[in-house]
Design goal:
single chain; alpha/beta; 6-stranded parallel β-sheet; 4-stranded mixed β-sheet; 50% helix; elongated
Length: 485
């Protein structure tokens, strides 16, 4: 098992129920996801060959996964030839240990970071802190999460659950008082306009960039034929992190590799339109090895398995590894829009998190067993996925896996009794008709407006998350006999 599950998180049904009670959270999410959805639809509508691009992206990813061993070795060979080093990590603990050792070798105790899902997955910041190394997030949304002592709730916009007023208060508290050990000075009469918040973050980060000698990044893509790390972002912080420090460390999952430089032609059209609704990323930085008098003198790439090899072995579930982390599936998901990312208990929230987390970490925990059910199976995520991941298909596949994992254990006593009674009833038309008459009579006692809000006793589990239609006053057979004598 690898990867990070938020400690102390309950399973999805309980976490979702708590989130639904937060009206401010629902308003923040509804406004943010609606804005991103509209921008994406407009940007995608500009391309007449969008479906062909999706198909090309899917084909490249699936070809790469079929030959992943070959392309990974080619990537290592090219990185080494360019003056860099490749390190292999079986799980999150090993990846964190490698990165911490590399930082220690530089003699530094501070690093600047680009937003990276892989480092969130491994819990790198916590591991570095335990090793006496402080990591400064430089992406604006990640900075908000870090200063707010919070957890990210969205793949692309980690602070999507915060509105501008909340962000202003975090900045005033953390930057104005130096409570977190920061020395940016008094933020002054900070307002909540976006340009004021961005300027406050810029002042806060400027000194970190200039004094940092170690930068840590993730990767959107790893190009096998050149040994290149590609980072796409919107604020320019990523470019500063990969080019200013003396040492650059990239931590990325093994599925990020693409065979050729030319493949980026497809993905650099799919990614910005699907993620931010832009025609292209404002900043796309690529880095290959080391060079005299230009950029980092040391260049390391840590390739993380973290459950990906096991996922690759599953013919249905492996398509989750095609994900390019655009988050389009989150922004159209009716479940995510109402409960937010924290309810998923994982760094990968939303529909892609519901299929990625249980495969990378396994289904041993209650959180991971509940995630395949955190969906209505409406299919909206499949329709917008830029690389055509059939998320509903994988969700159903994982639900079957969860059920199968429980077959070795006896069902709870009451559940076995109910299932046995149902089998006995459904095996006889006469007994079924009798049960229907009893159910119709009993429903009169508990139904309201034609629906049953809560069943009594152990049956209450059926109505914990849904209303139950009240049984019809008479069965179809009875109605037929009465109306067709």
């Amino acid at each position: 098992m690898s990867g990070t599950t938020f400690l102390g998180m309950p399973a999805f049904p309980q976490a979702a129920r708590d989130a639904l009670g937060d009206a401010q959270l629902r308003r923040n999410l509804a406004e943010a996801t609606r804005t991103i959805r509209d921008k994406r639809a407009e940007a995608v509508g500009e391309l007449p060959d969008w479906e062909e691009l999706r198909e090309a992206g899917r084909a490249v990813k699936e070809h790469t996964l079929r030959h992943l061993d070959r392309y990974l070795l080619q990537f290592e060979e090219r990185v080494t030839a360019a003056g860099g080093s490749v390190h292999w990590a079986r799980d999150a603990a090993e990846a964190n240990r490698i990165v911490a050792d590399l930082v220690r070798r530089t003699g530094r105790s501070e690093v600047v970071k680009v937003k990276s899902m892989a480092t969130q997955e491994t819990g790198l910041n916590t591991a570095l802190e335990q090793a006496g190394i402080r990591a400064y997030e430089t992406d604006l949304a990640e900075l908000i999460v870090q200063l707010g002592h919070d957890r990210p709730s969205h793949i692309l916009v980690p602070a999507i659950h915060r509105n501008r007023a909340e962000i202003r208060e975090i900045f005033r508290r953390e930057m104005g008082t130096g409570a977190a050990g920061d020395d940016a000075g008094d933020a002054g009469p900070l307002g909540d306009e976006p340009h004021e918040l961005a300027e406050a973050a810029r002042r806060h980060l400027r000194e970190r960039f200039l004094r940092a000698e170690v930068g840590i990044c993730g990767a959107n893509f790893l190009v096998a034929e050149t040994g290149t790390v590609v980072v796409a972002e919107s604020e320019g912080n990523g470019r500063m992190c990969v080019s200013l420090p003396e040492t650059l460390i990239c931590l990325a999952g093994i599925e990020k590799v693409v065979p050729r430089w030319q493949d980026l032609e497809v993905f650099l059209q799919l990614l910005p339109r699907s993620s931010t609704g832009e025609r292209m990323n404002p900043y796309t930085s690529s880095w290959t090895g080391t060079a005299d008098h230009d950029g980092p003198r040391e260049f390391h790439v840590v390739l993380l398995d973290g459950g990906r090899t096991a996922t690759l072995a599953d013919p249905i579930g492996r398509q989750a590894l095609n994900c390019i982390r655009c988050s389009a599936c989150l922004n159209v998901c009716p479940v995510y829009e109402r409960v937010g990312g924290h309810a998923y208990g994982s760094v990968y929230p939303g529909p892609i998190g519901a299929i990625l987390g249980p495969q990378l970490r396994g289904t041993a925990s209650a959180v991971d067993r509940s995630l395949p059910y955190a969906s209505t199976l409406c299919g909206a995520c499949y329709e917008v996925c830029p690389v055509k991941i059939n998320i509903p298909e994988v969700l159903v596949h994982l639900r079957a896996r969860v059920v199968d994992s429980r077959r070795r254990r006896p069902l709870p006593g009451w559940e076995r009794l109910v299932m046995g009674a149902a089998r006995w009833t459904l095996s006889s038309p006469r007994r079924l008709a009798g049960a229907q008459r009893i159910a119709a009579a009993a429903a009169r006692l508990v139904r309201r407006d034609g629906r049953i809000r809560r069943l009594p006793g152990p049956l209450a589990g059926w109505t914990d998350a849904r209303d139950l239609p009240a049984p019809a006053p008479e069965s179809f057979r009875t109605w037929w006999r009465r109306t067709h004598p």
